[in-house]
Write a structure and sequence with these properties.
Number of strands: 9
Helix content: 55-70%
Number of helices: 23
Structural class: alpha/beta
Distance between the termini: 84 Å
Low-confidence stretches: 498-502
Radius of gyration: 25 Å
Length: 506
């Protein structure tokens, strides 16, 4: 036991560092935001409703199933429901250490696992009540089986069955899991000399796993065959300042760091790409095969995202283990000790401030806004929020007396739960007339409105109040990285007499 610990002590140091950062973030992270509330709420519904909404949901339901079991056993507190992601995140770090040591070297194992430990986005998803930490772990496991079969050529009795189960679980964890299968198929196109029997088994494995996945995907897809399917917020948000390097650099450092740090890290990534391409022809076939997989794993998700205009970093976090291993392999090729120490110091200088920014501050908290409203609300006031789905999570934290309503200027007979699961990911379009009519009806006879919206919506909602004579009084932004702001407006003919009474001018 003592010998084993001595042999693997770097892993324990890395895991201790990773755990300390993530546990600290658990304590300071703050309240749930909508995405987390969505996971919790739709995992707790009775089975009939849960299955109905899981079929309507944009992404498959493996994580919801895991979360449901976890909450039934251990409870529904904010920290409690985030622990599964913490566990998945730490297992991923340990697994990447194992892969680095198995495929490259012990030094590469340390570097790759440390990179993931310090990654801001991995810190985020490891404390987030969402599927991304589980998805990243399953991606690493999928490539482990794939490389074992086609690079290491180590196929045991349980290799194919376990690979099949991994692929099914992977597909049921997130829609972008299809990218993993695309990468593996592209790899086999490159591996022209791969064993024919293994190729055939691989294709059968993918076909059967996709067939099982289609049991969810087909009914879910058919439910979304309407004009609104192209109104996803991810198709409409501003991407003018983003590019493929946004996807790549923000896997490691967060966007809150100075621009020169992001630029420096982009230069380093370019250096890694060029160096890997330069030494690629000099490698033996086994190393070439491994490097080819790591390069596709690292860059295809980001390149595909850039092609589709998608720059949401959490959608590409599943490429982080491959990228960390590729960086570690490049680092391992440096034989000069002084150069290695200099690069290590540079990496730490870049990483640590970004890591500490994420690990030591709140991600988001409703309390700045809800406490203000509770203190300043009057009898004839209301809370309106855009997008409408935020109504679900506000009601969890708001303890006041006035009504909370999501801005939903469309006519339908859907419940709030069904509206959310159908449309939370869409930009809910309505005509100016419908919007005006809805706002006029829901502000009628109100003395005060607390209007909440994401920072990216700013201008659209607040302009209506200004144009209709409402008096702006106060602006309060939620604490944390997720930008939600409250605007307090008084009615045109309202004046406040005390903190708890009001009157309209005669």
């Amino acid at each position: 036991m003592k010998f084993w610990f001595k042999k693997h002590y770097p892993l324990f140091i890395v895991l201790a560092t990773a755990a300390a950062l993530r546990i600290n973030l658990l304590f300071v992270r703050g309240t749930w935001w909508f995405d987390e509330m969505f996971s919790v709420h739709y995992s707790l519904l009775p089975w009939g409703q849960a299955i109905k909404y899981w079929l309507l949901e944009t992404n498959p339901f493996l994580y919801n199933l895991v979360l449901r079991g976890w909450m039934n056993l251990l409870g529904q507190g904010e920290m409690t429901v985030r622990i599964p992601s913490l566990i998945f995140g730490l297992i991923t770090i340990a697994f990447v250490y194992y892969l680095g040591q198995k495929w490259i070297s012990r030094r590469a194992a340390i570097v790759s696992s440390l990179i993931i430990s310090l990654s801001g986005i991995h810190l985020f998803v490891s404390t987030e009540t969402r599927t991304y930490a589980l998805f990243t772990l399953l991606t690493a496991l999928s490539f482990y089986w794939f490389i074992n079969i086609f690079v290491e050529k180590k196929i045991g009795r349980w290799t194919w069955p376990l690979f099949f189960l991994t692929q099914v679980a992977l597909l049921y964890s997130h829609l972008t899991a299809l990218t993993v299968i695309i990468i593996q198929v592209l790899t086999l196109v490159y591996f022209k000399t791969a064993d024919r029997a293994s190729r055939k088994k691989f294709l059968l494995t993918q076909c059967f796993s996709l067939l099982i996945w289609s049991l969810w995907f087909t009914p879910s897809f058919l439910q979304k065959l309407n004009a609104g399917s192209l109104r996803g917020w991810f198709f409409t948000y501003d991407t003018n300042s983003s590019n493929i390097f946004t996807n790549l650099t923000t896997l490691f450092v967060n966007t809150g760091v100075p621009d020169f740090v992001l630029a420096l890290f982009a230069i380093i990534l370019l250096g890694i790409i060029f160096y890997a391409l330069k030494v690629f022809p000099q490698q033996g076939q086994k190393n070439k095969n491994l490097l080819f997989i790591l390069m596709l794993w690292s860059f295809v998700p980001a390149a595909l995202g850039a092609f589709l205009g998608q720059y949401v970093t959490k959608y590409f976090v599943f490429s982080l283990p491959g990228f960390a291993l590729l960086i570690a392999w490049t680092f391992d090729q440096i034989t000069d000790k002084t150069a290695r120490l200099a690069i290590t110091a540079l990496f730490l200088v870049i990483f640590i401030p970004s890591t500490l920014t994420i690990a030591t501050g709140p991600i988001f908290s409703w309390y700045t806004i809800t406490k203000y409203i509770e203190k300043n609300e009057v009898p004839k006031s209301a809370i309106l929020v855009i997008p409408f789905n935020e109504e679900l999570v506000i009601k969890k934290y708001y303890r006041g007396q006035v009504p909370v309503e999501g801005v939903y200027p469309l006519e339908d007979n859907l419940s709030l739960e069904e509206r959310i699961v159908r449309y939370n990911w869409q930009s809910l379009l309505s005509s100016n007339g419908e919007y005006d009519a809805w706002m006029a009806e829901h502000t009628k006879n109100r003395d005060k409105i607390f209007f909440l919206q994401y920072d990216s919506f700013e201008g659209k909602g607040t302009t209506w109040f200004v144009n209709h004579g409402w008096k702006f009084k106060k602006r309060v932004r939620a604490v944390g990285h997720i930008g939600i702001t409250m605007f307090e407006f008084d009615a045109p003919d309202y004046y406040q007499t005390t903190s708890s009474t009001s009157a309209r001018a005669n």
